[in-house]
Known about the structure:
- The two termini are about 30 Å apart.
- The protein is globular.
- It is built from six helices and seven strands; from the N terminus they run E-H-E-E-H-H-E-E-H-E-E-H-H.
- It has one domain: CBS-domain (Roll), CATH 3.10.580.
- It has helices spanning about 20-30, 50-55, 70, 85-95, 115-120, 125-135; strands spanning about 15, 35-40, 40-50, 75, 80, 100-105, 110-115.
- Helix 4 runs parallel beside helix 6 and helix 5 runs antiparallel to helix 6.
- About 40% of the residues lie in helices and about 20% in strands.
- The chain has about 140 residues and is α/β, with parallel strands linked by helices.
- The longest helix is centred in the C-terminal third of the chain and has 12 residues, at about 125-135.
Amino acid sequence: MKVLDIMSAPVITISVDCPVTRIAAxxxxxxxxxxxxxxxxxxxxxxxxxxxxxxxxxxxGFASRKTAQDIMTPGAFWCRADHxxxxxxxxxxxxxxxxxxxxxxxxxxxxxxxxxxIAEHVSERLAGEALGEIVEDR
Length: 138
């Protein structure tokens, strides 16, 4: 099975200049915990619900003035739509992430995939193995 078969699409994105208050509202409104950040049509980074807490709430400065660019993780890890689910699980474990943006062969963002997608659509065992790698203390 391929990533394309289990990913969520179309993907909800934000721009680098999106205010953090709008980011939080989007996550809440869509029931999601991560938003890919795009600039000039390309993946620039990712903002997670944890980024909001760690880099905004516990950080200094006025939250209302911060944007995605201020709090995103730049150079986000990603996978390809044609990767196998086994490759996806290995990437998640290697990079210790639970969600990945999905790119096509032209490096365009085409979806998002999560550890939950693996568990729901493929194998709870494979998802569990990946989770073990994700939470491993390194």
